[in-house]
Amino acid sequence: MAVNIEQYKSVSSELSSNQVTLVAVSKTKPVEDIRALYDLGQRDFGENYVQELVDKQAVLPADIRWHFIGHLQRNKVKYIAPFVHLIHGVDSFRLLEEIDRQAARCNRMIDCLLQVHIAREETKFGMDEQELTEALTKSSSLKQVRVQGLMGMASFSSDDNIVRDEFQMLRMLRDKLMSPENPLSILSMGMSGDYRMAIEEGSTMVRIGSLLFGARGS
Ligand SMILES: *Cc1c(COP(=O)(O)O)cnc(C)c1O
Asked: Which of 26, 48, 178, 191 is the most buried (most CB within 10 A)?
């Protein structure tokens, strides 16, 4: 097993002393690895692929809080709506509407984060400031979803200044768009390689995979 137990213990105590939530990103990793961290008390796990998440959820303890952190297609929302804890990557109002519809069918409330395009790279998903503002305004009409905050992925860059700028941009957007009705209290930013910097820049939730579970097969 490639799970690094000592690393997990040190990262999770570092994060809890900073009041930052650790989402352990277990995509492509076997259920035994998830179970190993579960047995140490970890409850928040993140997955990127709908089918993989559904399969794992079916065989793992019911009190795991499953975070969907991948790119979600509208026609797949129905598979995760019955149990998902938080959907991080909402990048359009149409997707939010579909989540609302499926949440209503399951008679539950689903918490979501809007994904912001902060990286300079063209390939990353997410909304710009105008789309974000519109989606937030329109989301007040949806009864079964709650927008709890923002999520972003920084550029894959060895230049710390670029990454820091991107985290700062996300934090500033949050501060600008938050309101008493919509406090946007969750800021999901930071991964294995940049989580410390993300926390310095105000992250409240980090998504860490390879540092805990080992590198993913290439
Ligand atoms: C895979 C993934 C992570 C975790 O990445 P690591 O570098 O392995 O920590 C975090 N966020 C998202 C959106 C991911 O797809």
From this structure: 26
